[in-house]
Structures are given as structure tokens and as C-alpha cells.
């Protein structure tokens, strides 16, 4: 097992280096000189030259990449052109909001999608199954950004129930401990702030989680359906267990592996989905930071955000592969 | 004596015509499912709107009328069936033309990804060895990016144009084809009919083209259907972020972006284009699901819901 983990971790390193090279090449190949873009129209050629000097833009490309890679390995992703702050710090500031949103979205997807799928899979072709399948199709076909806009329109606009933008009411939060507002407020025993945080996160989390909910429902349904015909389910029934116990103790437990895989696989989609949902709800996460960076052509910030997202994604996939091997020993012999 | 006692052949004299009908019905049978019929209807509707948009649109989709901005839907009574946007453009006409652009982009993206993916996958699986290693490394690196992120970066760096948008949407979408094609090619290359072809002196190109590729088509068709749904969503997402096609081309995504701005006063701006995206993607997904049930139940869980 340890051998497998070591091999997988080492195998990831060249991938990460190639990713950084790809992103760097993308920035290089892009038309337009950032120094031209960032300085005002009145900048003299000398101003531009000194800016290029300062940002290292006049060095050969491979030197720039090497410096970029060495710095990145030391945790230095450069300085934002626009804000003159270290990129890593800026991302670090915004990342907790994104993680908080993603976690709540996953919770919504799992706690609604899985029971719905179990329910539908246990009674194929019943009305429950039909309703569930409709939800499944609804979830996988719903564009999250439109769903978000409609939630704002109906829940915040017509019904005036929940706020439509931002992360909390100004001035209500205590000093951050972890950066996760809801968790921080819980740690401070500030119930008003907890509710405030929840009221802000519900709509974006629903918009973000619906896609995963649909996929989870469909996968759970088909894997429960498959398992229900297995011998061990028949044995459990023959023992005289109640149908409820057969379903939840025996069938669902064995249907869990594909469900966990899908949660893992869909994390990436969720991560990029959050970029759009954050924009819809003005959620101050790293996704909206990326969009701000794109709009101002802040190259180091774009590169840094893209690399951070990809790095997180690679780590998630690696973790899932390893978890998977831990659950199912057959996998280790495959590769 | 009732009919039911008689054997099939006695009740129904076998003539050429009925035999054909029965074969026809047998072949059609699996396709006559609610999923496929409903999904197919939505897709046909999209194609109709896209192909005939210049004929059925009541107005020029880009014609502004600053005296007639943000008009609510007039339905059958008013001048603008679905209302107008913030610069007075007719929403219905923009939706028809948006269908056209969605269709063009999605079909192009799916075709290019399919050709690239299947070709690389077939080559990778057929030749194995170094070529396989190289192609699989490329797959690994490109696939390591979260969906849509690479597309966002490409459009952001290279600017807005139809071609760049298509490249950005293809960049990760060929991979599912490549993976499935490689797997199939790996197992096909050792089969007897491939050996037979080789011993008859067929070149590698001929073996791949004549013997391997036809076996990959069904899988590619199913992947392509889901890829089309995801391409439409991705295109709309990019347009929504202002990273799609140039602003003078009406798209559902950019209409939604306008709709978001005016959401508190004019709900129709955001409602209708979104409904179109939703029903289009729903239809394609249902169609793909039905096709997968028919062609290959083993393909389950591949390619759904990316982006």
C-alpha cells in the first residue's frame, strides 16, 4: 500500500511540472504586451521599458519560465500587476469562501441525491423512480448560472426570503479564525452570524450543487438497482430481514463505491462551476478573483489562480485514487 | 376456435410486405421510448430554430430601438412576443439566432473533438509503445485541468473569436473519445481479423481505417451526444462570463449575462434564453441516454455533465 502511494505521488510530479509549462506557454503565446496594457496611454517608451525590466518581461522565455518554476516551488506565484500584492496571498484570502461554498454544495447534493437515488433504485419504474429520474435529468441539464439567476429572481426578488449577493451582512462577522465564516461564527458562539452566513450561502450552494445532485441520483439509482439482484441481497432477504434493513444495511453499503467515485470525479466540475456561480452571486471566492483578473489582464494573478485550481484538482484526484486503492485492493494490481 | 390457439405463422400469412414491416418494427422498437421521442423532439426543435432563424425571426436580432427598451413580453397581442432587452432588441429573434450559433458551435466542437479523439485513441491503442506513452501523457496533462478552466484561460489570453472559442471547447473534449477508442483499439489489435488483414499485407493505415475505426463508431456516437450537451453549456458559460464569441453575435449565454444585470426589473431577459439552454441540453441528454441504452449499456457514467 505504502509502495503504491509513493509511486502515485512521485508520478504526479512530472504532471504538475508539465501543467505549469503549459500554462506558462499559454501566457507567452497570448497576443498583446502586458506592459503596454497596464501602463496608461501617456507612458513614455522609457516607462514601458522600465516596467518590462521590473517585471522581468525582457528576459528570454526559458529564463522567465525557469524563474517562474523555481519561485512557484518556493510558494511564490509572483506579484499581481494590478494590486501589487503577492498572488498566493490574494488567492489564500479568497480560497476559504470557495471551499465553504463547495462543501455546502456537496452536502446538499449528497443528502438529497443519494436518498433519492436509493429510493428510485429500490422501486424501479414506480412513480418514485419516475420523479427521481426527472430530478436526475433536471440536475444534469440545468446550467448552474441560469438556475442561480432564477433563484435570485424568485427567492430573493419575488419572495424576498434570502439575500442574493455577497457572503454576509457587513459588520456582523467576528474576527476570522479559519476564514470559513459559518465555522468561525460557530466557534464564536455567535448564532446570529451563523444564521446570517447560512442565509447567504443557501442559494449559491443550491445553484452549484444541483448538477452533482442529478449525477449522484442517477449513479446511486443504477448502482442500487444492480446490487439489488446480487446474491447477498437475496441471502439477507432469506434471513427474514425487513426490506428497510436489506436496502440500507446491505444494498446501499455495497453500492457506495461508485457513489464515492462520482463525488470525486465531479469535484472538478464543481470547482469550475464555482467560478461561474460565484460571479452570479458576487460570492467573494477565488473564482470571482479569477474573473476579475481576466477582465484586467492581470497575468500573474490569472496564471496563479489557474495553477492553484489545477493543483487542487490534481491533489483531489490523487487522494481519491489512493482512497480507492485502500477500499478495493484489486485496483493496486492494475497499474 | 380463437385466433390465439393458432401458431403465429397460421394467423399471419407471411408475405414479403409484413415481414419487412415486422423487421422494421423490430429495428425501430428500442427507439420508441419516451426518452428518445421527447429528447429527439427538443433537438429537432433546436435544429429548426437554428436552421430557419433568418426566416422565422420577426426582427433583425441586432436592430436596436432605444424608444422601445425593456418591453415585457407582448405574447400574441404585442409587437415583441417575448419582449425586448435593454437596447430594444427583440428577444425572440435573438433566441432564434442564438439557437443557430449554439448549434454551429456545438456541432463543430463535437465533430472536431470526435475526429481528433478517435484518431489519437486508435493510433495510441493500435501502435502501443512509445506513441501510446506520448499520447497518454498528453491526455493526462490536459485532463488534469478542472473542466472549463483551460477553456477560460485560452479565450482570456487569445481574445474573442469564433475559432478561438471552438479551439477552447475542443481542448479537453476530445479526451473521452480518445480514452474509449484507445481501450477498444488495444483489444482489437490482437484479434484474428486484424492479424488476418496484416498477413494479407494491409498497411497500418488501412488496418486502422478499415478494421479498427468502424468498431469505434457506436461508442463515439454516444460520447458525442453527451459532448454536444456539455459543449452547449460550456459555450453558454463562457458567453455568460463575457468570454465567448464577439458581442455582436447573439448567444443565449450573453443574453443571460444581460438578463442578470436587469434581473430586478425585467425578468424576461434572463428567463427565456435560460429556458432554451435548459430544454436543449435536457433533450440532448435524454437522447444520449436512450442511445446508450440501445448501443452499449457498459458505457454508463461516461461523459455526462461536464462543464
Descriptive overview:
- The complex is a heterodimer of chains A (335) and B (307).
- With 335 residues, chain A is an all-alpha fold.
- Chain A has helices spanning 2-29, 34-38, 45-55, 61-73, 87-122, 127-141, 144-158, 181-187, 191-227, 231-238, 243-280, 286-295, 299-327.
- In chain A, helix 7 packs across helix 11 (243-280), helix 11 packs parallel to helix 12 (286-295) and helix 12 (286-295) packs antiparallel against helix 13 (299-327).
- The mean pLDDT of chain A is 84.
- Chain B is mainly alpha-helical and 307 residues long.
- Chain B has a single domain (33-306), classed as Orthogonal Bundle (MetI-like fold), CATH 1.10.3720.
- Chain B contains 13 helices and no strands.
- Chain B has helices at residues 8-11, 16-28, 34-51, 53-56, 91-127, 129-143, 149-158, 162-173, 175-188, 192-199, 204-240, 252-261, 268-295.
- The longest helix of chain B has 37 residues, at 91-127.
- The model of chain B is unreliable at 1-14 and 299-307 (pLDDT under 50).
- At the A-B interface, helix 1, helix 6, helix 7, helix 9 and helix 11 of A face helix 6, helix 7, helix 11, helix 12 and helix 13 of B.
What would you say about this model in short?
The complex is a heterodimer of chains A (335) and B (307). With 335 residues, chain A is mainly α. Chain A is built from 13 helices and no strands.
